[in-house]
Sequence to fold (155 residues):
Amino acid sequence: MTTTIIKTTTRLLAPLILVFGSYIILHGHLTPGGGFQGGAVFASGLILLIVANVRDKVQELFEKTPLTQLESLGALGFLGIGLLGLMSYTFLKNAIANSGFLFGGTTPQGINPGYLNTGGTLSYLNIFVGTKVLAGLTSIVLIFFLILRRERDEW
Fold:
């Protein structure tokens, strides 16, 4: 049973948590964090939405969400970026750095002053790992939630 306070707090906090998780994923090559940490934060926002709603609403929200496909996309994307490095005979070589592509800007010497476009393949790896982690963690909690709520309703 959820109260009005929980629903209102969730409505206010969930978007902020999702944006913060995205920020951690995208800035993983500049700050502590990255794909796994950002994916876990993003998943916690989705889990907050799951826990704060009733079973029917959760099923309605996540019925059309392709969590399994997102998890597979994360794994295949990570593998694809790794294979991209094989063009230079090294798996996961940073082949995009200094190329001019998205996230392939010129890498500064020394400490990066915060240029987001300088991550090379690391930025893509963070995005794919974050996608896999957020889909996996959300799926686990969603399955437990639906099973427990169904058993509670049968009581």
Observations:
- The first helix runs from residue 4 to 26.
